[in-house]
Every structure is written in structure tokens, then in C-alpha cells.
Amino acid sequence: MINFLYNLVFVIPAKILLPFFFFFNEKIRKREKSWKAILNQTKIDYDRKRIWFHSASMGEFEQAKSIIESIKQTNPEIFIIVSFFSPSGYENQKNYQFADSIIYLPFDIKKNAKLLLDKLKPDCCVFIRYDVWLNILTEIKKRNIPALLINATKPLKLNSNFILFRAYLKKVYSLFDEITTVGEIHTDFFKKILPDKKIQTLTDTRFDRIINQIETSRKNPIISRDIFQNNELILIAGSSWEPDEDIIFGAYQQLSDELQKKLRLIFVPHEPTSEHIERLSNLCGKSILLSEIIEDSKIINNFPDETPVIVDSIGKLLKLYGIADLAYVGGGFGVGIHSVTEPAGYGIPIATGPKINNSPDALNLKNLGALKPVNNTEEFLDWLKAMITSNELREKTGKISKEYVIKNSGSTEIVKNIILNSGIFKEHHIQTK
Known about the structure:
Elements: H1 2-21, H2 26-41, E1 50-55, H3 58-74, E2 79-84, H4 87-93, E3 101-104, H5 110-120, E4 124-128, H6 134-142, E5 147-152, H7 163-174, E6 178-181, H8 184-193, E7 199-201, H9 206-219, E8 233-240, H10 242-254, H11 257-260, E9 263-269, H12 274-284, E10 288-289, H13 290-295, E11 309-310, H14 317-320, E12 326-329, H15 341-345, E13 350-352, H16 360-368, E14 371-373, H17 377-389, H18 391-407, H19 411-420, H20 423-427
Parallel strand pairs: 1-2, 1-4, 2-3, 4-5, 5-6, 6-7, 8-9, 8-12, 9-11, 10-11, 12-13, 13-14
């Protein structure tokens, strides 16, 4: 019944409306035009055991990376398939070296689900966090393929108490053989709708990824902080959007000349399009691009000490946090903030916009005193002044951030063993250590 209603109410209307979105959304247009060709062209080694990992986009894929890399370290013969629903996820990760095949997840039509599974023939399916699709999971279940949901979180955007939606959630999550969550509050939610399901409370596997990346980043930084003035503090505005940038630069302009000279702004836009870079440059008045510094680090000597740096390419943020003293994480004035665990792992005090409920880590860091949500320029200015003028406060707050990440690390090996002890892997005694 739920499958019928899902296809009637959601899939069929979405399929009809999809062509209309082509005219308004270039990403959707590109994805729908290319997913089948990419799937048909991808090469799958059917002589090897195959694990398929699915993530919605880049953020969720960061949660999968530590698991994939740990599997490859102990079992390099396993064939790893990675899929994305988001075009940005696919485009930015399509050359990820530890995946043997990278594809788009097709829209959740029954025909597409069969086409996908016929091609991949996975021995195990691993879905990350929340991007779950009823028709695809139903087809996986029909084929008796183990399916795991990792780093699961309860839905936040929709009312899970609505009877039809709750029935849908019960149906779709029942199709997983095992679920691991990132906290007790999420485990409680899943246990209420699936009391007999095997559900385990762990921590976010991204913590392990961040710790590994921090070690690598410190050995090979994108730029050295030595190119800046020795007395400067560096504020990284990570994954920033326009409202974030207006608040940050507005507060910076209200600092005294003395405090301005102690602070260097580095903006890392969430989407560094040419339009966004131009908009940021106009906001700052005078700025310098990271690409110019990478090409010639001495170029920064030709700019005033207060000149903001604008990052004009993707994939740099995690490493750049390695030279930061303070972080502002963007998205808190939109759909919700981006990852706060990355700057926390470096031991950096964090500020964000007010919308943090989509991030359990942000809520936890706020309660610990390591993260400050701000509603406007004045509130951010107060936080900024306090952090610039008090080394003790800055170090104490950063220490809380770092300890939080270290305390919550260690789930990767547990999840890896769950995967390698499922189905056909258990039968063939796959190495788990």
C-alpha cells in the first residue's frame, strides 16, 4: 500500500514535472541528461566482491570516506562503487581515488531501480545518513542484498508524526538490515517506529575522517601562515553565503583600526562562482584571490595588511582551517549550517548563523561553549572582539572544540566490521582487521 501511494503521490508527479525543472535548474538538467550514459559506461568487475556506497552529496560523502579507505587498506581486492544524487557531489568527487566506480543515483522509478541493480550487482549496499529511496531499497530487498544505513539521523524538515509520513518512514527504514545512528536521540526515533530493528548508537564517522585529514593537512598546507603578518589572527569564513559575508565584513568594518590590523579575513564561499567572487570582491572593496597567492605568495606583500583573501576554487576549506585561529561556518541564515566538525577538529573557536538545528554537532558544541550562534552583525562583533582580545578565551574555547572531536572518534572501524560481516562477506571470511 505504501509503495503504491509513494509512486502515485510522489514518483509519477515528479516524473511529469521533471522536464519543466530543466529550464530553471542547470544542475538537474545536466544530471538527468548524463546519469544513464555514465551508468552504462562504468565498468564493474563482477569477479570481485562489490560494496556500493550512496551519499546525497559531498557533505554526506565525507562520512563515507573514512570507511571506504579503511576497507581498501585491509581489503584492496574489494570493488568500491560510489553514487551521488547531487550533481555537485558527483562533479567534485568523480576522481576520488579509493572508488573503483563513481555514478549518479537515478531518479527513484521502478524501472531505474532495476536498471541500476542489474548493472551494479552489489554484494552489500551502504546508504549514508538520510538519502533513502523506497523503490530502490525495495528492489535491493527483493534481491536479498544486505542494506545498511550508516550515520542515520531522524528527519527534521517534515512532521514525522503525520500518519502517512510516519507509515512511509516505517516502510522505507524497515528495508535496511541494520542501522547505526550518530546519537541516542536518533536511535530513540528509529526504535519507536521499528522496535525490532537492529539499531546501534555510534558517533559520526566523519570525526575519524577529519582527524586523518588534519594530520595530512598540517604536513602539506595549501599556503603557509608565514606569508601573513606574524601578529595577525586568521578568521576563516567557511562555506559562506551572502548573509554570512555581510555580517562578517560588517563586523570587521566596525572594529577599531588596532583590532583590524590584528585580523585577516579569508572567505571560502560555498559556491565560488564568478558571480559570487565578484560580489565578494565588491563587498570588500579591495581583496586578493587565493589562486594569486598560490601562484606567487609574495604578491600579498603588495596589498595592505587588512586585505581580505577570497578563495576562488573548491576543495580547499579543510586544509585552510589548519592556518586559522577563528572560524565562522556559513549556512546558518539559510537551510542550515554546514560542517562545524572540521574547524572543531583543528581546535578553533566557532561562530555561525542562528539555524543550527540541522546539525547535532553544532548543538553539542554550543552547549559545551565552543560554538556561538549569532543573529546579526552586532552579536558577531561582540564575539569577534572577545576572541581577538583574549588569548586565554580563544585557547580555552578551541580546546573544547578539539576535545569534542577526539572524544567522538572511533566509529569507522565498528562500521567497517558491520559491513564486512554482512551477507556474502561473512561467508567468505573477509579480513576485518
